[in-house]
């Protein structure tokens, strides 16, 4: 998985600004705009370990959705 943030993530407050790229079966599946926001949530204050678990869980669920939609 790769998250691409514009302007070195300076001022990124909305997940729709991110490019989310997931590698599956040797190919990259990109998500932008509303699709990236469905995969990633940005929070100001969260516990790092809990945030990582939530991100991993949401990305796994999002990958399943991407496979069904492509």
Q: What's the short story on this structure?
A:
This protein has 70 residues and is of the alpha+beta class. The chain is built from 2 helices and 3 strands. Strands 1-2-3 form a 3-stranded antiparallel β-sheet.
Molecular structure report:
This protein is of the alpha+beta class and 70 residues long. Helix content is 40%, strand content 20%. The chain is built from 2 helices and 3 strands, in the order E-E-E-H-H. The protein has helices at residues 34-39, 48-69, and strands at 2-4, 19-24, 27-31. It has a 3-stranded antiparallel sheet with strand order 1-2-3. A hairpin with a 2-residue loop joins strand 2 (19-24) and strand 3 (27-31). The protein is globular, with a radius of gyration of 12 Å.
Quaternary state of the chains: single chain
The amount of helix comes to 40-55%
Could you give the distance between the termini?
Answer: 17 Å
Radius of gyration, taken over Cα atoms and rounded to an integer in Å: 12 Å
Q: State the helix count.
A: 2
**Low-confidence regions:** none
List strands and helices in order, with pairings.
Layout: E1 2-4, E2 19-24, E3 27-31, H1 34-39, H2 48-69
Antiparallel strand pairs: 1-2, 2-3
